[in-house]
C-alpha cells in the first residue's frame, strides 16, 4: 500500500468512480484501468478508482476487485475505494485499497434512496467502518453527501451538516469531505461550512466535492482554496453525476480546476494537456461529450 503523503492543496481525481457511475455506457475493466493509468501518467496522486457497491444497483462499478488487481502500483500514488457498508469494507480491504472513503448522507430521504438507511444508521455504519479501517492501518475519510442541498428534502442548513461533522469527527477520520452532490451550492455556503469544520474538527484534513450543475462549482472550489489548505475533487473531462439524484450533472473538470489552481500559484504536479488528451479519449469511449472547457479554449499562455 502507498502511504498518504500528499499534503497541501491538491486535486483528487474521482473520474474513474464518480465520473463513470452515472454514464449510460458501462466501461469494461480494461478500459477503466486504462483511464486510471492515464490519470497516473498525467501526475495525479490520489485517485478514487472504484466503488464497492452492489453491481446490480450501479453496474458501472462492477468488477472493482478486478480493476484494483490490474492497476499500476506506485509508492507515490494512492488508490481510493468508496464503501457504503461493512461488506463493502471487507471487499475494499481485501482488494488492497490505499484509502477508504465512506459516504454519510445528511438527509434521511436521500440516505434511504442511496444507502437504504436513515442518517442515524448511516452514522452508526460510519463508526463501525472507521474503527475497522483504522485498525487495518488504512487512511480513512468520510464524505458528507448532499451537504449543500437535497433533491428530495430541499435546503440543508449548515447547522445540520456541522452537527453530522461533529458526530463523524468523534471516530477520528483522517479527512472529512463536504460534498455538493447535486450542484446547488454557492460560495456563501462554502464559507459557512468551512467555519463550522474549523470549529468542530480543527485537526482533520478538509476535502471538498463540487459539481458544476448550476455553473457554481468552480467558484465554490476557489472559495474553498482561498479559505485554506484542502483537497479538491474533480473528474477528467467533467464527467460525472449521482444515479440517485435527478439532474445531477458533471463534476468540476480536472483540467479546468488544474488551470485555475496553477494560475493561482499552486504547483499541482498535473500535466494539463495530458488530462485534456485523456478527456478526449474518454469521451470517445463513453460516446458522451466532454464538459470541460480547457480543451476547447486551450491553455494560457499558449
From TrEMBL:
The keyword Lyase applies. InterPro entries: Aldolase_TIM, HMGL, PYR_CT. CDD domains: DRE_TIM_HMGL (cd07938). It comes from the Bacteria. Keywords: Lyase, Metal-binding. Residues 9-276 form the Pyruvate carboxyltransferase domain. The keyword Metal-binding applies. It holds the Pfam family HMGL-like. One of its GO terms (molecular function) is lyase activity. PANTHER family: HYDROXYMETHYLGLUTARYL-COA LYASE (PTHR42738:SF7). Belongs to the HMG-CoA lyase family. NCBIfam families: PRK05692.1. This is Hydroxymethylglutaryl-CoA lyase. It comes from Williamsia serinedens. The lineage of its organism: Bacteria, Bacillati, Actinomycetota, Actinomycetes, Mycobacteriales.
Amino acid at each position: 500500500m502507498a502511504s498518504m503523503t500528499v499534503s497541501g492543496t491538491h486535486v483528487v481525481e474521482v473520474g474513474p468512480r464518480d465520473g463513470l457511475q452515472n454514464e449510460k455506457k458501462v466501461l469494461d475493466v480494461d478500459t477503466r484501468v486504462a483511464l486510471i493509468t492515464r490519470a497516473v501518467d498525467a501526475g495525479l496522486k490520489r485517485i478514487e478508482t472504484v466503488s464497492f457497491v452492489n453491481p446490480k444497483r450501479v453496474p458501472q462499478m462492477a468488477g472493482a476487485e478486478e480493476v484494483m488487481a490490474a492497476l499500476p502500483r506506485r509508492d507515490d500514488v494512492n488508490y481510493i475505494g468508496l464503501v457504503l457498508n461493512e461488506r463493502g469494507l471487507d471487499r475494499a480491504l481485501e482488494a488492497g485499497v490505499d484509502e477508504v472513503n465512506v459516504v454519510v448522507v445528511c438527509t434521511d430521504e436521500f440516505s434511504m434512496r442511496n444507502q437504504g438507511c436513515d442518517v442515524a444508521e448511516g452514522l452508526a455504519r460510519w463508526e463501525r467502518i472507521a474503527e475497522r479501517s483504522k485498525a487495518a492501518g488504512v487512511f480513512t475519510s468520510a464524505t458528507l453527501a448532499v451537504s449543500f442541498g437535497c433533491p428530495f428534502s430541499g435546503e440543508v442548513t449548515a447547522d445540520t451538516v456541522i452537527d453530522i461533522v461533529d458526530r463523524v469527527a468523534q471516530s477520528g477520520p483522517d479527512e472529512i469531505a463536504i460534498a455538493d452532490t447535486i450542484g446547488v451550492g454557492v460560495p456563501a455556503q462554502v464559507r459557512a461550512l468551512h467555519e463550522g469544520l474549523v470549529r468542530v474538527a480543527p485537526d482533520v484534513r478538509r476535502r471538498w466535492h463540487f459539481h458544476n450543475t448550476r455553473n457554481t462549482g468552480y467558484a465554490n472550489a476557489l472559495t474553498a482554496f482561498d479559505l485554506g489548505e484542502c483537497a479538491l475533487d474533480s473528474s477528467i473531462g467533467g464527467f460525472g453525476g449521482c444515479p440517485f439524484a435527478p439532474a445531477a450533472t458533471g463534476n468540476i473538470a480536472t483540467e479546468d480546476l488544474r488551470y485555475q489552481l496553477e494560475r493561482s500559484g499552486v504547483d499541482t504536479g498535473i500535466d494539463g494537456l495530458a488530462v485534456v488528451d485523456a478527456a478526449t479519449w474518454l469521451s470517445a469511449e463513453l460516446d458522451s461529450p466532454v464538459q470541460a472547457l480547457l480543451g476547447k479554449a486551450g491553455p494560457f499562455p499558449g
